[in-house]
Structure formats: C-alpha cells, structure tokens
Amino acid sequence: MDTYKIDHVARMTGLSKHVIRSWERRFDLIKPVRGGNRYRMYSQEDVELLIYLKDQLEEGFAIGELASLGRDELIARIQRTDDNEGKEAGNSLDRILESLLSSISPLDRNKFVRLFNEYSALLPFDEVFYKIFIPLQRKIGDLWHEGKIGVGEEHFVSNHIRQKFLSVLNQIPSSSQGPKVVIACLPDEQHELAIWIAAYQCARNGCQVFYLGASMPVKELAAFCTLTRPNLVLLSWTTSLTEPEAKSLVEDYVQMVLPICPIWAGGAGAYMMREYFKESGIEVLESLHVLEDRLKRLSQFLPNK
Known about the structure:
This protein is an alpha/beta fold and 305 residues long. The chain is built from 14 helices and eight strands. A five-stranded parallel beta sheet has the order 5-4-6-7-8, with helices on both faces. Strands 1-3-2 form a three-stranded antiparallel beta sheet. GO terms for molecular function: cobalamin binding; DNA binding; DNA-binding transcription factor activity; metal ion binding.
C-alpha cells in the first residue's frame, strides 16, 4: 500500500501541515504510522479522508460535527460516494476511449483529431494525461501487438499524444533555480510512455526539464550534458538486453555521462540489472511511484546548497 510523508499529503489535499497535525491530535481521525526512517507516514485512506473532510467543510459542515461521526463512518461514506461517482466516471472515461478507438480502426483522421482535441480540452490536464492519454497509448500498443492495427495507425496516435504532451510540458512553469533534469530513452529504445510520465512528474515538481525522447545515443547525450550541465540524467530502460550488452552500455554511461552528473534509471531493464547499476554508481528507481519523493533529493545536487 502506498504511504506518504506529510509534505506530500499537504500537496495532494490542499491542507496545510499545521491543519493536518491539528486534526490528527484533536480528533483521532488520521492514523499515520512510523516508517523505518521514523517519519510519520500517511496511508492512501488517510489522504482520501482528508480530502473528504476538506470538501465537506467547503459545503458548510463543521469539523467537530464531522469528527463526531468517527473514522469508520466517514470512510464508509467516502466509499458509498466513490462507488456512485466511480461508476459514472468510469463509464464516461470508457466511452471516451471507445470513441477515440472507433476512429482508429478503420482510421478516420478528421474524427480522431476532432475528438482528441475536444476531450483534451474537457478535463484538467492531470486527468487528461493519466486517464485518457496513458490508457489510450497503452491500448493502441496492445492493438498493434495483437495485429489489429498497423504501425502507421500506432504512430499516428502516438505522435498526436506526444505533440499535445510536449505542448503542455513546455507550458508548466519552472523556476530558473529549479534542478535541471535531462530525460531520455536508451539508444534504440522507441517507447516513450514511461518518460512522458517521468517528465511530467519532474516538471510538476519545479524541475527544468530537458526532454530528449526516444533512442538517445550515449555519446550525444554526453555532449548535450556537457553543454547544459544538468543536475540529473533520468533514463528509461525497458529493453531486454543480454548481460554483456547491458554491461557494455552501462560502462558507456559511467565513462561518458556519470562524470558530468548523477544518473537515475527506471524500467524493467534497469531493475533486472539493479545490482550492476548499484556497483557502477547509477541509482535505480524501482517504479515511477517513488520518483516524486526522490526528486526532493535533487536539492543536494544544486550549487550553493
């Protein structure tokens, strides 16, 4: 089960850390546990309860009145609300995906572009990105693997998602003092889905993102890093390589890129080689879920810190 530190909870709920601690002490509704590092860690259920309380306060309820119901009753009310809203939202999102897919096979270019643009404007970008773009990209990949659509259709959809994603990515405000993060795939790796998510998480956390995309040669990556002097290189490694191939590639990164800045790597391929990465000084991210928390560590790479 996912757990979060109080800084992360405050961002997700819109509540201040002071309010969260106050409700925790006064009403015994929130049940954090101590992690191995002694930080108080909040569960997903705690986060959902805090969001529910905040919404109810905005509807005019008093916190004391809500707290008197007890945690179990509040959680039950959240579940009943989620069941009803989830069915409606799930059905709506399913319909959106089905309508987009119906314009792909057979391909109706005008219909797809019209629907894609309409749906992209319909919801906040967070929801568009995670609930439409990512599921659509995965579904299109599945259809291609199953032989139900061709490479052309798959590229057509992927490029539309990529263009919209990069347009929004470039509009996310970033501080000139934010960490510089170069994000790229391995040489010959074409799948960008994971680094889309990583780039978006980095940008939302105030990083200056240099998105280099798919199939980035190590030598060219090193040249770009020499030019830009980033605080971090983030690599997507999903491709399966033989052990000699993987070790040779890691050695290239160690020799050409690691002297310039730290490297983090994520993906199935990186995880399979995690022990060798660790020995080489490259950090492996076990999943995208831990990336946001790890981004806080970038401050140690910044000058004058």
